[in-house]
Each structure stands twice: as structure tokens, then as C-alpha cells.
């Protein structure tokens, strides 16, 4: 299963990479922008669509800095 990992680069990149590694160990196919060649602030919807997400899930990594 492909899993799109959404996170804030400024304070969650290290965790997102660690989580992606754990997912790989579990037999999943994690999809991180930094590993799939997406530049910051690029149109995310296009990149996700091109990532062929037929069997997919979304993991949103929330941090306290994301809250107003």
C-alpha cells in the first residue's frame, strides 16, 4: 500500500523520514516529497496525482507549530 506522508518540513522532516523507514519495514510504500523529487511550494495536487495512488492512504503529521 502506498502511503502519502504529509508533514511540515520546518519541524517534522526528521520524524517523517523515520516514520517512512518504519513503514518500509512493515511492507508499505511510503511517499515523501523529499524522496520523490518535489520542490518546496510546488503544486502538490499535481505531484500526488502523478504519484499513482490507486491503493493509498494519507498520514498527516501534525505538530504544535502547525496550530495557530
From TrEMBL:
Superkingdom to which the source organism belongs: Archaea
InterPro entries associated with the record: TIR_dom (IPR000157), Toll_tir_struct_dom_sf (IPR035897)
GO biological process: signal transduction
Coiled coil: none
Segments forming domain TIR: 3-55
Record-linked Pfam families: TIR_2 (PF13676)
Gene3D superfamilies per record: Toll/interleukin-1 receptor homology (TIR) domain
Name this protein carries in UniProt: TIR domain-containing protein
Organism for this UniProt entry: Methanosphaerula palustris (strain ATCC BAA-1556 / DSM 19958 / E1-9c)
Amino acid at each position: 500500500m502506498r502511503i502519502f506522508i504529509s508533514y511540515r518540513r520546518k519541524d517534522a522532516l526528521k520524524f517523517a523520514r523515520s516514520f517512512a523507514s518504519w513503514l518500509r519495514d512493515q511492507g508499505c510504500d511510503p511517499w515523501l516529497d523529499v524522496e520523490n523529487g518535489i520542490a518546496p511550494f510546488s503544486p502538490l495536487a499535481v505531484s500526488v496525482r502523478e504519484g499513482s495512488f490507486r491503493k493509498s492512504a494519507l498520514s498527516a503529521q501534525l505538530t504544535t507549530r502547525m496550530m495557530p
